[in-house]
């Protein structure tokens, strides 16, 4: 599907990123395995999981290099893309998968917790995409695959930083799709459901929560990789600006915000008429304060 394409996968040392890197290589891509070897919270560990993934790829005859630059700074993100071009001569796809978590209930969330998560997720997706954009424009082709989350699309408690960044990524992806479609550049999002380091922080203090975690563990990271490979391929030439979700063996096309219901008064609105007429008319279409587990409430199959 992606024979001889050059693909950068960020955060590819573990979990979903690792599975995507392996799948890309098995499908013929030359892969830049980017990982800084950080913990779930973004702290350095001194380990080099990206190099281990490169060795796995080379063991089955694939082509790959490791890269340890951070996505969270513009200069280092630029070096990730330049590493791909230096090693393989071009860049065809960037999978923006790198991520960290610093979960806190909102009123206890520090500025540092906010900044760290937004920098890796939202700024990281911007920096790597921006670095690849001139190459994509010149060759008039390219694909960006961004990882969003149900925390941003639906909502979750204790993740204001992560949710804001992930929903921001969907808007970033749509803007890139609109701006660069004239150059045959595509930008799409995947909302992955999979047990990995990013979901290992889910509370499991009650029997109900423990049962949910066991269900989540059935959703292995390798289930996400086929869609990422497809979106990087020429077969997806007409797929642009979309948001997909993958949940074990289920695949979804997710909605995007559109008007639901309207009310009109020829004389205009006052605060009083909004209270007596406008809001009661709209209330039937209000969304509940759902969390992702409320919307995706059935067991994965």
Automatic annotation (TrEMBL):
InterPro entries: KR_dom, NAD(P)-bd_dom_sf, Peroxisomal_Beta-Oxidation, Sc_DH/Rdtase_CS, SDR_fam. It comes from the Bacteria. Residues 5-210 form the Ketoreductase domain. It comes from Noviherbaspirillum galbum. Pfam families: adh_short. Belongs to the short-chain dehydrogenases/reductases (SDR) family. This is SDR family oxidoreductase.
């Amino acid at each position: 599907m992606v024979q001889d394409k050059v693909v950068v996968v960020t955060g590819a040392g573990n979990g979903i990123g690792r599975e995507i890197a392996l799948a890309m290589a098995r499908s013929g891509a030359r892969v830049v395995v980017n990982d800084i070897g950080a913990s779930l919270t973004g702290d350095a560990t001194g380990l080099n999981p990206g190099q281990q993934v490169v060795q796995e790829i080379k063991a089955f005859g694939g082509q790959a290099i490791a890269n340890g630059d951070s996505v969270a700074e513009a200069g280092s993100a630029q070096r990730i893309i330049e590493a791909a071009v230096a090693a393989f001569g071009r860049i065809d796809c960037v999978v923006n998968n790198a991520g960290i978590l610093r979960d806190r209930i909102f009123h206890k969330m520090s500025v540092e917790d906010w900044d760290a998560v937004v920098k890796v997720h939202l700024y990281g997706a911007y920096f790597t995409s921006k670095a690849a954009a001139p190459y994509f424009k010149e060759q008039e082709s390219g694909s960006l695959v961004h990882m969003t989350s149900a925390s941003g699309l639906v909502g979750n408690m204790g993740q204001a930083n992560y949710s804001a960044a992930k929903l921001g990524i969907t808007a970033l992806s749509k803007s890139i799709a609109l701006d660069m479609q004239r150059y045959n550049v595509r930008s799409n999002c995947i909302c992955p459901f999979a047990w990995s380091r990013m979901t290992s922080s889910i509370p499991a203090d009650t029997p109900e929560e423990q049962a949910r975690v066991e269900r989540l563990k059935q959703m292995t990271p390798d289930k996400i990789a086929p869609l990422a490979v497809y979106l990087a391929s020429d077969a997806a030439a007409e797929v642009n600006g979309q948001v997909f979700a993958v949940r074990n063996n289920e695949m979804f096309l997710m909605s995007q915000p559109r008007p639901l219901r309207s009310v009109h008064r020829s004389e205009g609105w006052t605060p009083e008429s909004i209270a007596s007429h406008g809001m009661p008319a709209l209330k039937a279409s209000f969304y509940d304060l759902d969390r992702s587990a409320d919307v995706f409430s059935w067991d994965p199959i």
